[in-house]
Amino acid sequence: MTDLETPSSAYIHVPFCQHRCGYCDFTLVARKDHLIDDYLAAMEQQLATVEPGIELQTLFLGGGTPTHLSIEQLERLFAAILSRFQLSDDCEFSIEANPLNLCIDKIDFLQQSGVNRVSLGVQSFHSEILTFLERDHQPEQIFEIVQNLRDRIPNTSLDLIFAVPGQSLQNWQDSLADVVGLGIPHLSTYGLTIEKGTSFWSRQQSGLFDLPADELAGTMYEYSLEYLSSQGLQHYEISNFARPGFECRHNEVYWTGHPYFGFGPGAASYLKGVRRQNHRSVATWLKRIAAGESPISEEEELDPESRAREAVIFGLRRRVGIDLADFESRYGFTLDELAETAMEKNITAGLLEQTETHLRLTQAGCLLADSVVIDFL
Q1: Which residues contact 237 (CB under 8 A, 6 or more apart)?
Q2: Is residue 279 part of a domain?
Q3: Rounded mean pLDDT, 288-293
Q4: Diameter of the chain by CA atoms?
Q5: Helix locations, the chain, DSSP H
Q6: pLDDT at 355
Q7: Is the same domain home to 325 and 244?
Q8: Which of 37, 68, 155, 242 has the fewest beta carbons closer than 10 A?
Q9: What is the mean pLDDT of residues 72-80?
């Protein structure tokens, strides 16, 4: 498939949460459950614009917290999705979840509805870190919830955050050991970043806390690479680790530059070379759809060179890197034509390495990936 063909992947954004954590800048509303029925009606309306019968290889429900919805509300959302799309026999059907939303009845419902992958926002196995991050679960609850979940949906992924104020290297090492002890087949690790507009930003600006030194954050990341690899979790993308066969196929669609549908407030789509993003404001998105207007806030048609440069930026996130021959075949440019200077600079600096077939980040490059990809813009 090229990036100009009909997508076989769809992302559905569910913007509801019980509480907005202080570090979160995602599109969501907290404690506004009275909007859920309006959201479901709008989603039915937006999905109705899709030609029915398209088969999906991956379907991903993110948020927000999709599992914040009740079973009845999820049932209505799933029915709307499946009225337009068919799921392939081996479709990866993922949903993001908060641990305390996952009672046995809801897990059973998800399994019976065809969900076969759950991404669980654990963030830490230490109570003081969870309290700082404003999470509503405690470490002892995680183990039981994960066990209940994996008994029914084995393809469970956990999210963990490192470089949190007050977090020691030993604390991080213990959390990684807990993940391995649970037999989790997929793990996403993210260094804490403070985004402007979040409550953490205001607190940091007021001097209420400082992030750990870059050196400690780098040590935590490097330990993750070495330890998880030794335990059979392969580092396949800058922030992601998986046992063979458990890589997130939906995210691979993004990283390999293939097209996808996006529905819901703040959701992005990539269709026939055009990137679109819906309004991030839930209220604006609802109002526009109710009025029969377009929910799109941004739209950009990428020219061939822009598509190629974007493919470099996403492709370098993958640890396998960019297949040079495939890249030229798909985009009509060689990497030398596109960014010879950027390549030479970062290879010389030890941040990129080039083989006969691929260009990829080195381990040192993974730590400085954002500065590397800027050179390719």
Answers
A1: 247, 251, 255, 317, 318, 319
A2: no
A3: 95
A4: 57
A5: 36-47, 71-82, 104-112, 127-132, 139-152, 169-181, 199-205, 214-230, 249-255, 282-290, 304-315, 324-331, 335-348, 363-367, 369-374
A6: 93
A7: no
A8: 37
A9: 98
Query: Do both 225 and 134 map to the same domain?
Result: yes
Q: What's the CATH code of the domain at 111?
A: 3.80.30.20
Residues 247 and 324 in one domain: no
Is 365 inside a domain boundary?
A: yes
* CB-CB contact of 269 with 275 (8 Å): yes
Calpha distance 17→338 (Å, rounded): 43
Q: How many CA atoms lie within 13 A of 121 on its CB side?
A: 22
Check: CB of residue 122 under 8 Å from CB of residue 136: no
pLDDT tens profile 355-373: 999 999 999 999 889 889 8
Residue 196 structure tokens = 């402007």
How is residue 255 written in tokens? 């990283």
Which residues lie below 8 Å from residue 43, measured CB to CB, with a gap of 6+? Answer: 12, 77, 80, 263, 264
Q: Which two tokens stand for residue 175?
A: 């959390």
Rounded mean pLDDT, 138-166 = 94
Task: Name 182's Cβ contacts closer than 8 Å, sequence gap at least 6.
Answer: 143, 146, 147, 150, 158
**What does the block give as tokens for 51?**
């030609």
What share of the chain in percent tops pLDDT 90? 82
Q: Does the predicted TM-score (pTM) go above 0.85?
A: yes
